[in-house]
């Protein structure tokens, strides 16, 4: 969808919308489902009214723990693109690894705010003597969770990096 012209964003990438299949003798395959929130990815926001409309739309159609910062607090002058899905993908990978989105901890804190944790990209990684995943995987997820959309990778960058991670850890 990101390679369409114009590109489309799924807008609700989350673990519940990913189906994992497995065929005997083949690696698992992840299939993205539920395209009810999909729409053209690139939008130019040029007024406070447009920004508020986008935030209202996101509140209805994008699951809060996986919603990109720019969909929580949209500037009056900005360009929104398909990298909102990259943010959601990073949250989804974290959730697959640890069973919860990287920002839901804020809901359990006194005075905590999911929105503030997301907008400020305050990721809390589980701690312990022996991390269950390689540091390279944590860095990969952190790369996708850049609070500034312009710094976030695009899907082509993600595919290249995944190929590198697979070859590095499959030996």
Describe this structure in words.
InterPro entries: Kinase-like_dom_sf, Prot_kinase_dom, Ser/Thr-specific_kinases, Ser/Thr_kinase_AS. GO terms for molecular function: ATP binding; protein serine/threonine kinase activity. Residues 1-171 form the Protein kinase domain. By secondary structure, this protein is an alpha+beta fold. The chain contains 6 helices and 6 strands, in the order E-E-E-E-E-H-H-E-H-H-H-H. It has helices at 48-61, 69-72, 83-98, 114-119, 135-144, 155-169, and strands spanning 8-9, 18-21, 29-32, 39-40, 43-45, 78-80. The mean pLDDT is 89.
Task: Give the arrangement of secondary structure elements.
Blueprint: E1 8-9, E2 18-21, E3 29-32, E4 39-40, E5 43-45, H1 48-61, H2 69-72, E6 78-80, H3 83-98, H4 114-119, H5 135-144, H6 155-169
Antiparallel strand pairs: 1-4, 2-3, 5-6
The low-confidence runs, each spanning 5 or more residues with pLDDT under 50, are none
CATH class: Mainly Alpha
Largest sheet: 2 strands, antiparallel
β-strand percent reads 5-15%
Distance, first to last CA:
32 Å
As for the CATH topology, it is Transferase(Phosphotransferase), domain 1
- How helix-rich are the residues, as a percent range? 25-40%
CATH architecture classification name: Orthogonal Bundle
**Count of individual helical segments:** 6
Q: Judging from the principal axes of the Cα atoms, what is the shape?
A: globular
Structural class: alpha+beta
Strand order of the largest sheet: 1-4
Q: What Rg is obtained from the alpha carbons, in whole angstroms? A: 17 Å
- Series of H and E elements: EEEEEHHEHHHH
Mean of all residue-level pLDDT scores: 89
Provide the number of structural domains.
1
CATH superfamily annotation: Transferase(Phosphotransferase) domain 1
Number of strands: 6
Organism: Solanum commersonii
Protein name: Protein kinase domain-containing protein
InterPro entries: Kinase-like_dom_sf, Prot_kinase_dom, Ser/Thr-specific_kinases, Ser/Thr_kinase_AS
GO molecular function: ATP binding; protein serine/threonine kinase activity
